[in-house]
C-alpha cells in the first residue's frame, strides 16, 4: 500500500499552490541558550513575508538556518520541493536563495560592478556574457550604474545597502532574504527602498524581510510573522498583526 508524504502534503496552501520555502519545527540552540524553538512557516511564490521581533528574538538565526550558515538542531527546511538537509550555503545560493546582511559586506577592494560579477558567476552560474549583461541591468535597477567602476569600500551607507541588494539580485534568486536592509536610512531613502523591493517582487522574486523600520515593512509585506524569545507568537496580515495586544507588548512595549 503506497505511503502518504505528509511533509509534501503540508506545503500545499489553501490556494492550491505549493510553498516555495517551508520551515517545519525549526529549533536552534547554542549550548544551553535556546535561540529558536519549534518555528514553522511557509512562503508561497510571489509573497513578501515580513519578520518582526525584538532584538534577540532569533530573526537573524532563522535566516542563517535558511541560507545554510547554521544548521538546525531540530526541524526541516524545504526549498522548491527539496529538503535542504546539510547543504552548504553555496549550494543553496545556486538553488536560488539570495541573501543580504544587516551590515553590508562588499568586497571593498573590488569595484561595484566586479562585486556583482562574483555573485552572478559563482552563485548564479552564468556565462561571462550573460553575467555582464545581467549585472549591468541590476546596477541600473538599483541606481548604481553611475558607480559601476567605483571601489565598493568607498561607497556611502545608502549605496552599500543598494550594493548588498544588487549582489543578491545578480545571482538571479527565486527567494530573496532581506536582513534589515532599511536600517540606518532616512525616511526618503527608506521610501525609495520600499519601491525597489516592490519592483523586485513584481518581477517574480519571493521575499522574506526582517526589518525594524516598521513603516517600510508594513508598506511592502503581504504577511508578517512575529518572533519572541525564539518562538513564533503570531502570523497574519500586517495590520492585524500590529494591532495584536501581545505584539504591542513584546515589540512596542505597550501594555494593552
In words, what does this structure look like?
- It is a single chain.
- The protein is of the alpha/beta class.
- The chain has a domain at 101-172.
- Helices cover 38% and strands 23% of the residues.
- It has helices spanning 6-10, 59-67, 89-95, 112-123, 128-141, 157-170, 187-202, 214-220, 238-242, 245-252; strands at 21-30, 33-43, 48-52, 74-79, 82-83, 97-99, 175-179, 206-210, 223-228, 231-236.
- A 6-stranded mixed beta sheet has the order 6-7-8-3-9-10, with helices on both faces.
- Strand 1 (21-30) and strand 2 (33-43) form a beta hairpin.
- Helix 4 packs across helix 5 (128-141) and helix 4 (112-123) runs parallel beside helix 6 (157-170).
- The N and C termini lie far apart (53 Å).
- Residues 1-15 have low confidence and may be disordered.
- Percent in strands: 15-25%
Structural class: alpha/beta
Distance from N terminus to C terminus (CA atoms, Å) equals: 53 Å
Order of helices and strands: HEEEHEEHEHHHEHEHEEHH
Major sheet attributes: 6 strands, mixed
Low-pLDDT residue intervals, each spanning 5 or more residues: 1-15
Shape: globular
Task: Please list the strands of the largest sheet in the order they lie side by side.
Answer: 6-7-8-3-9-10
Radius of gyration: 18 Å
**DSSP strand count:** 10
* Number of contiguous helices: 10
What is the mean predicted local confidence, pLDDT?
89
The quaternary structure here is single chain
- Tell me the helix content: 25-40%
